[in-house]
Amino acid sequence: MEGVTDPAFRLMCKHFGADRVYSEFVSAEALVRSVKTTERKLTINEAERPVAIQLYGREPEAMAEAARIVEQAAPDLIDLNFGCPVKKVAGKGAGAGLLRDVPKMMAITRAVVQAVRVPVTAKTRLGWDADHKIIVELAEQLQDCGIRELAIHGRTRSQMYTGEADWALIGAVKNNPRMHIPIIGNGDVTTPERAAACFDRYGVDAIMVGRAAIGHPWIFQQMKHFLQTGQSMQEPDFDWQLEVLKRQVDDSIRWCGDERKGILHARRHLAASPTFKGIQNFRKTRVAILQADSRQELFEIIDHLSDSRQELQEPTDIQSGQRPGADCADTP
């Protein structure tokens, strides 16, 4: 979720019912070198608590030093990212790359746990590839090193985000009698019904939602409602969804302190939003959204979508083919 879970987006998710939010991942090496853009990721808004700052790196000493810096920002948790699969991270021996060097992963975990007082949690994957799904044993080792919770993405690093998440192995960790820390499941939870099924079938303590929240922050409200009532919420009105997305743009601009940077940061949420699913010939509009570099231009595109949808949905007079109230000047 790099470039996604900034404070503006986290507050939006919190508003719609997320129980906990996580920062973008923070490079330990960059933090130790006092890189300003990395230090900015430590910004926490009191309204978003509880919040975890997510840390990644490949050396125990640097991770411990970075954790002490993170602790000064007063997060509720420090989360160790042992699951990022992208090449620039995993290929350098950090993130999911540590699945190929478990002793170092344990050394990092112990170093961070001993360096700070704030609770330390971790997130990882099932293993490096299909032949090395080591998560059941790995979870025990991480627990023994002192982590307080473990989040598991139900894919290997080699899978990246392809195929289906294997929740059976997540359930195997949760039901391992040696495990006593909370287990959080992650992967392919995109609907309220799927969230409920994962709780029921695998007994996890919590569910982590990532990509499904991009452009759809009200998914947490929908999931909460279904989990509490067993009933699906009525899908929000199209214009209401547009207003939420526009608010997200404004929040991003305020957070970035610059209109163009805020637009660049937010428009990926718009382009990925399920709000626009099913709209005919949306590809051209999607490109326009991704190319817009001002608030006015972006909002004109969004407002045009609203106007076009209303025109398509307005009832017509069956006999004349006219819209109700239309005069002769409106007809060909």
Helix segment count? 14
Cα-atom radius of gyration: 23 Å
Overall helicity: 40-55%
CATH architecture label name of the largest domain: Alpha-Beta Barrel
Could you spell the SSE succession in H and E letters?
A: HEHHEHEHHEHEHEHEHHHHH
What is the 3D form? Answer: globular
Contiguous runs where pLDDT drops below 50 for at least 5 residues: 311-332
The assigned structural class equals alpha/beta
Spatial order of the strands in the main sheet? 1-2-3-4-5-6-7
Give the strand content.
5-15%
> The biggest beta sheet, please?
7 strands, parallel
The CATH class designation of the largest domain is Alpha Beta
- CATH topology assignment of the largest domain: TIM Barrel
> How far apart lie the N and C ends?
51 Å
**Domain tally:** 2
Explain what the structure shows.
The protein has 332 residues and is α/β, with parallel strands linked by helices. The protein folds into 2 domains: 7-229, Aldolase class I (TIM Barrel); 238-313. It contains 14 helices and 7 strands. It has helices at residues 7-15, 28-32, 36-39, 60-71, 87-90, 102-115, 135-145, 167-174, 192-202, 219-229, 238-256, 259-272, 282-291, 295-313; strands spanning 21-27, 51-56, 77-82, 120-125, 150-153, 183-186, 206-208. A 7-stranded parallel sheet has the order 1-2-3-4-5-6-7. Helix 4 (60-71) links the parallel strand 2 and strand 3. The termini are far apart.
